[in-house]
Write a structure and sequence with these properties.
Order of helices and strands: EHEHEHEEHEHEHEEEEH
Oligomer: single chain
Shape: elongated
Number of helices: 7
Number of strands: 11
Number of domains: 2
CATH class of the largest domain: Alpha Beta
């Protein structure tokens, strides 16, 4: 095993909790599990061993491999899995990310989306690799509860999913998130790159929205903006 590269056919989870989440949610793609000699034989360890034994998944005890793959000293379990394809659901709400470039942001967005019951994310290329271990780690395992699909352009996404309401989030938008009237129909929340945002062409797409804030900052961080938007669009779906 070597450090992860985008061209690899496999990726991996770093840590006991993430590996257990992988085994519970995507066991059909798990190839093997590495365990460090310092791993405590606790409840999580016993669960991993049982799941692997029950499903004939290879367990390899190797301090060297874990030290090679992980930059953190307290990572004692790594789960290796085959990359897999995902498909977006037609009649559900989506988050659309146009050219996201930060792995930590993508992982956090995945976690927030699952937390607000949005289980479909479209990524418009170029965009960060969803299977990079840093994305998997920052998602806290939520990546195994979501569908993600890449598109070469927003037009490609629109051709397939045009029967919905579109809300591009832009600083030049006139409609405010705090006051916009939201439809009960399915929607797509669209966000741009961390640095450049969405191009002006998106002012002609659906209903552009701005999240108003003080003039003390230029803009919100992408993952914060997505979380705020997700909350506003789904808050009436939950009991008090």
């Amino acid at each position: 095993m070597k450090k992860y590269k985008k061209s690899d056919l496999e990726s991996y989870t770093l840590g006991t909790t993430l590996t257990l989440e992988l085994l519970n949610k995507k066991i059909e793609y798990v190839k093997r599990v590495y365990i460090h000699s310092k791993q405590e034989h606790n409840d999580a360890y016993n669960k991993i061993i049982k799941i692997c034994n029950d499903n004939k998944i290879e367990i390899i005890y190797s301090d060297k491999i874990i030290n090679t793959l992980s930059d953190k000293e307290n990572c004692y379990v790594i789960g290796v899995f085959q990359k897999y394809e995902m498909h977006l659901t037609k009649n559900t709400n989506h988050v659309v990310l146009v050219n996201p470039s930060n792995m930590g942001n993508l992982g956090t967005i995945i976690r927030s989306s699952v937390g607000f019951n949005i289980h479909d994310i479209a990524i418009i290329r170029p965009g960060v690799d969803m299977f990079d271990p840093k994305v998997v780690r920052s998602s806290m395992g939520a990546i195994f509860n979501i569908n993600i699909r890449y598109f070469d352009s927003f037009d490609d996404y629109y051709k397939e999913f045009n029967n919905r309401n579109f809300y591009p989030f832009m600083l030049k938008a006139k409609e405010s998130l705090q006051t916009i009237k939201k439809s009960d129909e399915v929607f797509s929340l669209i966000f741009g790159n961390e640095g450049a945002g969405l191009p002006d062409t998106f002012l002609q797409v659906g209903t552009p929205v701005i999240i108003k804030h003080t003039k003390d900052i230029d803009s919100l961080n992408l993952d914060n903006a997505v979380a705020i938007a997700l909350y506003e669009f789904t808050k009436n779906n939950y009991d008090d």
